[in-house]
Amino acid sequence: MKSIYGEIPNKALKNNISDLINQVFKLLPYKEQENENLDKLFTTLLFRMSGMASLFQSEPRWVTLLSFIEAARNEKDFKMYRKSILDACSILSDIQEQITDA
Q1: Cα–Cα distance list, 100 to 1, 11, 38 (Å)
Q2: Which helix H or strand E contains 2, and what residues bound it?
Q3: Do residues 90 and 65 make contact, with C-beta atoms less than 8 angstroms apart?
Q4: What is the mean pLDDT of each run of 10 residues along the chain (102 residues)?
């Protein structure tokens, strides 16, 4: 896939997105368990996704992902929190599915 630095292998990108999906999904049990590392995980994810938005400027969904994660970060209603997290995972999965294995 084309980035601002040239071509990035699709397999590497798909693996990176799989890791992102896993990290985003971790936000659910971290919140339920009131894990002390929750804010650190949010910070790390937002940093990574911001980097992806910079690298792949032709993919506008990175901004939507950043918005979902940032909104969830301060959400008190667990149903809304859960919806934001699952919506983010869904968008990441959609992006990943559109990357060909070529």
Answers
A1: 9, 9, 33
A2: strand 2-3
A3: no
A4: 92 96 97 96 97 94 97 96 98 94 62
Q: Which amino acid is at 8?
A: I
CA distance 1 to 88: 21
pTM: 0.91
Could you tell me what percentage of the chain is helix, strand and coil, using 3-state DSSP and rounding each to the nearest 5?
A: 75, 5, 25
Measured CA to CA, the distance from residue 40 to residue 87 in angstroms comes to: 21
Q: Give the chain's length.
A: 102
pLDDT for 100 equals 82
Question: 68 burial class (0-12, 13-18, 19+ CB within 10 angstroms)?
Answer: buried
Give one DSSP letter per residue of 31-63, joined into a string: HHTT-TTHHHHHHHHHHHHHHHHHH-TT-THHH
If DSSP codes are grouped into helix, strand and coil, which group holds residue 24?
helix
